[in-house]
Amino acid sequence: MNSVFMLLVVREARLLCRRPAELANPLVFFAIVIALFPLAVGPQTQLLQSLSPGLVWVAALLAVLLSLDGLFRSDFEDGSLEQWVLSLHPLPILVLAKVAAHWLFSGLALVVLSPLLALMLGLPARCLPVLLASLLLGTPILSLLGAIGAALTVGLKRGGLLLALLILPLYIPVLILGSGALQASLQGLPVAGHLLWLASLTALTVTLTPFAIAAGLKISVSE
């Protein structure tokens, strides 16, 4: 199973490299939202600094959500999903490899880009390690939870709005913990509690969501 998992991750990575627009769109959206926000509220450093934890996390959440609508669509259209369902290999392992490749090329790139954009909002450099840690723990949760909605709506022609309605309520705990960790760091308070809760949620989602994604794909393929 380890070899199957790695082979599928490599396959998905090659496919994503052939579609650079799908990789660039979430990052461009993330950068534009944060770059435009100071123009809307003004150049007050203190105000931007106080708003930066929530703004960075909301922008990251929406950027991840933007990239999830087409997560399984190409596989659904070319019949690959049917082969996955009929395969002798466990479907949860296959979808976990798919989501892992998606996160490596979109979520991880978003994490790398975030410190530069956070500095534009006046976030102190001492808060950047907490920002990176919270996003590293939180973005996999966003991708895995979003993949459940993508699996359920993959057969719909315009499932983007329905995907957002299904998934956004599930994102609320991650948003609270991620922005809370950054806010605590900004105020000089301990952040270990927030990060430990995020790590617990990450472990829980990695363990359970592949089964929910697999069930959603089976429902979509059978319709």
Describe the structure.
This protein has 223 residues and is an all-alpha fold. The chain has one domain (2-222). 84% of the residues lie in helices and 0% in strands. It has nine helices and no strands. The protein has helices at 2-17, 20-41, 45-68, 73-77, 80-86, 91-120, 128-153, 160-186, 192-222. α2 packs antiparallel against α3, α2 (20-41) packs parallel to α6 and α7 runs antiparallel to α8 (160-186). The chain is elongated and about 55 Å long. The chain starts with a helix and ends with a helix. The mean pLDDT is 85. It is a multi-pass membrane protein. It comes from Pseudomonas straminea. Keywords: Cell inner membrane, Cell membrane, Cytochrome c-type biogenesis, Membrane, Transmembrane, Transmembrane helix, Transport. It is found in: Cell inner membrane. InterPro entries: Cyt_c_biogenesis_CcmB (IPR003544), Cyt_c_CcmB_bac (IPR026031).
Features:
transmembrane; 84% helix; mainly alpha; 223 residues
DSSP helix count? 9
Query: Which oligomerization state do the chains in this entry correspond to?
Result: single chain
Percent range for helical residues? over 70%
- What's the story with the biggest beta sheet? none
Instruction: Report the radius of gyration as a whole number of Å.
Output: 18 Å
Order of helices and strands: HHHHHHHHH
Gross morphology is: elongated
Low-confidence stretches: none
Structural class: mainly alpha
Mean pLDDT: 85
By DSSP, the count of extended strands is: 0
Q: How much of the sequence is in beta strands?
A: under 5%
- Euclidean distance between termini CA atoms: 29 Å
Structural domain count: 1
